[in-house]
Amino acid sequence: MKKIDLNIDIGEGFGLENDIIPLIKSCNISCGSHAGNDMEIKKCIALATKYKVKIGAHPSYPDKENFGRVSMKIDRKQLAANLEYQLTHFIKFLNHPDDLNHVKPHGALYNDCLKNEILVDTFLKVILKCCPNTTIFTMYKSELWKQAKKKGISVWCEAFLDRVYTKDGKLQDRGEVGAVISDVNKIFMQLESMINKKKVKTNEGKWISIKADTYCLHGDHPNVIKNLQKLIELCNNKITYEL
Question: Which end of the chain has fewer beta carbons closer than 10 Å to its terminal beta carbon, N or C?
């Protein structure tokens, strides 16, 4: 039976961690720069440790006003210093630095790291300085994926279950109608096609190839708990894989 790594962003102030963490394999905990605070970081780490969930740091642009979802024009040194602070501060709350399994950039930083070579170089220099033995979560063949592999940094390909893809393999802008998938049955169908066909249907109805080591559901989705529980139920009815 194939076990599937499901990850969710947490520690962002929605207060759902007690329900979410026992049901997933990996968590991405906000470092406080787009949302959350020290108390939430501690709580999430404690819950993840209790339920043996892989702990990930979720750094972002320093932009709480926009929840880290807006690209920022920021000096490289300033950004590097801020990212270094986020990660070193986060690591202090771990029982041991090696408890940090992965790092996944958040929001606009994630999207910008898909294609911006200079930004990716800045990001990876911080990773090599703060947590060189960690794994990066990013999309297959992104600039971050390419440069991480070149630098010998472990990288996992991430796919999104509750978001619609475009023909170039990117996510449809969440501000556009239909970009977020709310129907759990459609989320399950997307997971099945990703696993069995290694493909996903785009917003234009065409199929594109996809590779994934971990699958993301968004923690700020209005029905995340209900969808997560139903998704697990649907997967449990299959004998070939489980969440």
Answer: N
What does the radius of gyration of the chain's CA atoms come to, in whole angstroms?
A: 17
Nearest alpha-carbon partner for 28 in 199, 182, 156, 187: 156
Tell me if 213 sits within 8 A of 237, measured CB to CB: no
Q: What is the 3-state secondary structure (H, E, C) of 162-228?
A: CECECCCCCECCCCCCCCECCCHHHHHHHHHHHHHHCEEEECCCCEEECCCCEEEECCCCCCHHHHH
- Helices 184-192 and 224-236 pack at an angle, to 10 degrees, of 50
Q: pLDDT band at residue 113, thresholds of 50, 70 and 90?
A: very high
70-106 pLDDT tens trace: 999 999 999 999 999 999 999 999 999 999 999 999 9
